[in-house]
Write a structure and sequence with these properties.
Strand order of the largest sheet: 1-2-3-5-4-10
CATH superfamily of the largest domain: Transferase(Phosphotransferase) domain 1
EC number: 2.7.11.-
Organism: Mustela putorius furo
Number of strands: 12
Distance between the termini: 38 Å
Number of helices: 20
CATH topology of the largest domain: Transferase(Phosphotransferase), domain 1
Pfam families: Pkinase, RGS
Largest sheet: 6 strands, antiparallel
Family: Belongs to the protein kinase superfamily. AGC Ser/Thr protein kinase family. GPRK subfamily.
CATH class of the largest domain: Mainly Alpha
Shape: globular
Keywords: ATP-binding, Kinase, Nucleotide-binding, Phosphoprotein, Receptor, Serine/threonine-protein kinase, Transferase
């Protein structure tokens, strides 16, 4: 559309040669990188004089206001907490809702004493940092982190459709139709590709860790065992779940991303057959025997498998990691297998394909609350000031991109930015006063932002660059108003005076 001669006038900053090459690539080999050079040229142009002009505009004041709100402290009172959804390694997972926007999330609570007793500080911090780094449609997003007296909390994408283990073993006959299994495997390929692009190996691919959303799309969750691999290096470590660990992991050999392709083979097999390839569902067998089967035995295939599905599993479950599917070209090689002949990956990555199964919005795809086992009380472990450094590294508040998406999706961004004409928001920096505005009934968010504009642009920008919170003592003194208490509470705890957003 941009290069249609009748529909648009090309930007004069982009050379004619670049335009011609871009048009040609759009016809011959379209892809994500078609506009790369155009983007670079426009970015370089905008970073000069236009950006200097932007910093003097009211839009820059808006930007600083948003960053100020984004950096407000996050506590348990930021959320309403609902039923328990399940258990993690260090604590429960429950549903929660942001009070100010109504957005639902899943809150993964890590008990501080349990972490300390099991020396899980590095694992918890590693999961938090990896989740912050990865922004993928096929991996759960981390939106907030905060702490309470007893817990460290990760606030994540809520997945109301349950996990694949529940669907495989609790709804009808064990396993899925092959079409459904192939669709999930395709989305898993995309998720693993996004992780590997960030040099991250997942290492714990199993049905319990694959969750479904409201529409039936899957996301990878629980990145506690994931690890970042430096460029050109390998790692080792005997970690994972019995029956899903690759032979090279069991043997404690060096590897890069090969264990994840093995895990995809195990998962594909279980989705079709109804049990994992080397251990039947609820089979009583020792760990050593399962490990022996993984290293030595060949998996058995029933009539449930088509030839393509059988070939796909066999190539992923190759014992030698150097000969395994995906070992040479990664996800590109896996996606090219004939089992995915009916999958358009570009449309899949753009969220344009409908899943073969859509969860019932009235159903609850997890165990009843009374059937979820309670954690035992941790005794003999005491928290002290030495733990505070770890807690401060973990509980850092909002994660920018998911938080910004929440503001857009909930309508808060539009509500605030459309509240009055631009000229009424311009700040007179020299006099440190606002232009007069007619007194009209304003929303909670509007009043919050008006309070933020009391900071001068220069001071706010300096605070933003240095990572500081605004100095509220520096705000100009004035006659207290009926909304001053609400202004001090940016997350809507005083709902009776708030806008309709707070009661959504």
């Amino acid at each position: 559309m941009f290069f249609d001669a009748e529909a648009a006038t090309p930007l004069p900053e982009i050379p004619t040669r670049v335009l011609k090459e871009c048009r040609l690539r759009l016809k011959q080999n379209p892809g994500k990188d078609v506009f790369e050079e155009c983007t670079r040229i426009v970015h370089n142009y905008l970073s000069g004089e236009p950006f200097e002009a932007y910093k003097e505009s009211s839009y820059f004041s808006r930007f600083l206001q948003w960053k100020w709100l984004e950096r407000q402290p996050v506590t348990k009172d930021t959320f309403r907490h609902y039923r328990v959804l399940g258990k993690g390694g260090f604590g429960e997972v429950c549903a929660c809702q942001v009070r100010a926007t109504g957005k639902m999330y899943a809150c993964k609570k890590l008990e501080k004493k349990r972490i300390k007793r099991r020396k899980g500080e590095a694992m918890a911090l590693n999961e938090k940092r990896i989740l912050e780094k990865v922004h993928s449609r096929f991996v759960v997003s981390l939106c907030y982190t905060y702490e309470t007296r007893d817990f460290l909390c990760l606030v994540l994408t809520i997945m109301n459709g349950g996990d694949l283990k529940f669907h495989i073993h609790n709804l009808g006959n064990p396993g899925f139709e092959e079409e459904r299994a192939i669709f999930y495997a395709a989305e898993l390929c995309c998720g693993l590709e996004d992780l590997q692009r960030e040099r991250i190996v997942y290492r714990d691919l199993k049905p319990e860790n694959i969750l479904l959303d409201d529409r039936g799309h899957i996301r990878i969750s629980d990145l506690g065992l994931a690890m970042e691999i430096p460029e050109g290096e390998t790692i080792r470590g005997r970690v994972g779940t019995v029956g899903y660990m690759a032979p090279e992991v069991i043997n404690n050999e060096h590897y890069t991303f090969s264990p994840d392709w093995w895990g995809l083979g195990c998962l594909m097999y279980e989705m079709i057959e109804g049990h994992s390839p080397f251990r039947k569902f609820k089979e009583k067998v020792k760990r050593e025997e399962v490990d022996r089967r993984v290293r030595k035995d060949t998996e058995q295939y029933s009539e449930k498998f088509s030839e393509d599905a059988k070939s796909f599993c066999k190539m992923l479950l190759t014992k030698n990691p150097k000969q395994r599917l995906g070992s040479k070209a990664g996800a590109v090689e896996v996606k090219a297998h004939p089992v995915f002949k009916d999958i358009n990956f570009k449309r899949l990555e753009a969220n344009m394909l409908e899943p073969p199964f859509c969860p019932d919005p009235q159903a609850i795809y997890c165990k009843d609350v009374v059937d979820i086992e309670q954690f035992s009380t941790v005794r003999g472990v005491y928290l002290d000031t030495a733990d505070d450094t770890f807690y401060s590294q973990f509980a850092t508040g909002c994660v920018s991109i998911p938080w910004q998406n929440e503001m857009i999706e909930s309508g808060c961004f539009k509500d605030i930015n459309d509240v009055e004409p631009e000229e009424n928001m311009v700040l007179n920096v020299e006099e440190k006063t606002r232009y007069p505005v007619s007194k009209t009934k304003r929303s909670f968010f509007y009043r919050l932002f008006r309070r933020g504009t009391s900071l001068t642009r220069d001071r706010a920008f300096q605070n933003f660059q240095n990572g500081y919170q605004p100095d509220f003592q520096a705000l100009p003194a004035g006659k207290p108003t009926a909304t001053s208490q609400i202004d001090r509470d940016p997350w809507g705890h005083h709902q009776e005076a708030g806008s309709s957003l707070l009661t959504h």
